[in-house]
Amino acid sequence: MFLKTDELREKFIKRSEELKAVSDVDQLRIEYLGKKGYVSALMQDLRNASAEEKKEAGKTINELKQFIESAIAEKIEILKKKEVQLLIDAAESYDESMPSSNDLGSYHPITLVKREVESIFTSMGFTVEDYSEITDDYNCFEALNIPPHHPARDMQDTYYLSSNQLLKTHTSAAQNTILRKYKNNLENGNPIRAIFPGRCFRNEKIDACHENTFFQMEGIMVDKDISVSNLIYFMKTMLSEVFQRDITVRLRPGFFPFVEPGFELDIQCLICGGTGCSSCKDSGWLELCPCGMIHPNVLTAAGIDPEKYTGFAFGLGLTRLAMMRYGVKDIRVFNSGNLKSLSQFTEKSFVNPESK
Ligand code: DAH
């Protein structure tokens, strides 16, 4: 018996040294501590032993069991740390002091991210729509179920033009126009699937996280029987493509007058993998995209019967996505016009997991 426990202990240590990922630890745990594992087998062997033998061998087996349990817990901790480090290494890092690697000019980082998201959505049957930066109160607010004096307007203080027009505060301002443009398709059995990226403006105090000029990308899908699961599917697919890995998302309730129910979509932190770090303020989650099921009043305002059709909408913060994608910590970089910073972002600087 002693011989067996010693042998098993050595075998276990060897096997555990070979483990590379947290997911491999479970297999080892089952092999040793599972119902049909080595430790249970040792216990079974004891069935016909004398009381004295049982006492002594039982103690040795228990020690072995405790050793394996704590070694496994320790191994999980070590491997978790390693995996987090790998994620950190794989994340984009942007260093303003680096010289640009190309002399041929480059696209603005928002353009690069916008094009990437556009190509993902067009591959899923969405059209890309254009909408002006100047709009009016009706499109920006009223058609979105935000009547005059509604408190939701407080968060979207904008710049009014003398012509009674205004600079759009969000890409949702295009919803009414796009829904109207395609509503006849619904009768022919064709869903409305559209994204509309655009520059938005708000009267914000500027700091590292806030800008008065930023980019969003709105998306809508309307058809018979569209539900929250369609919304989750499209968002998860898009984000997994953008970040080139399987992304875990969660929905929290969020209030926006133009959706019911409304949500905040969070993604599990890409830096720490959900364990908590400074990037996610120790929560393990990053807020990325408000969304929800289009409010019946918004569909009605566009001439679509909410009894017949339902749809989802989302408002992706493109500027925020670009910051996460490239590891840019200060939002002011994007509007700085500083070529030294801005020319560093090329298609080449996207993470290519194959090359890691
Ligand atoms: N337009 C909102 C904003 O900028 C964001 C938003 C929320 C867009 C929910 C949506 C949505 O399409 O469903 O604050």
Structure, explained:
With 356 residues, the protein is an alpha+beta fold. The protein has 2 domains: 2-92; 109-355, Bira Bifunctional Protein, Domain 2 (BirA Bifunctional Protein, domain 2, 2-Layer Sandwich), CATH 3.30.930. The chain has helices at residues 2-18, 22-33, 38-45, 51-90, 109-122, 137-140, 175-187, 228-243, 296-301, 318-326, 339-342; strands at residues 127-128, 134-136, 165-167, 192-201, 213-223, 249-253, 259-268, 285-294, 310-317. It has a 7-stranded mixed sheet, with helices on both faces. A two-stranded antiparallel ribbon has the order 2-3. Strand 6 and strand 7 form a beta hairpin. Helix 1 (2-18) runs parallel beside helix 4 (51-90) and helix 5 packs across helix 10. It is elongated, with a radius of gyration of 28 Å. The two termini are 47 Å apart. The structure holds 3,4-dihydroxyphenylalanine.
Briefly summarize what is shown.
The protein is an alpha+beta fold and 356 residues long. It has helices at 2-18, 22-33, 38-45, 51-90, 109-122, 137-140, 175-187, 228-243, 296-301, 318-326, 339-342, and strands spanning 127-128, 134-136, 165-167, 192-201, 213-223, 249-253, 259-268, 285-294, 310-317. Helix 5 crosses helix 10 (318-326).
Helices and strands in order, then pairings?
Elements: H1 2-18, H2 22-33, H3 38-45, H4 51-90, H5 109-122, E1 127-128, E2 134-136, H6 137-140, E3 165-167, H7 175-187, E4 192-201, E5 213-223, H8 228-243, E6 249-253, E7 259-268, E8 285-294, H9 296-301, E9 310-317, H10 318-326, H11 339-342
Parallel strand pairs: 1-4
Antiparallel strand pairs: 2-3, 4-5, 5-9, 6-7, 7-8, 8-9
This protein binds 3,4-dihydroxyphenylalanine.
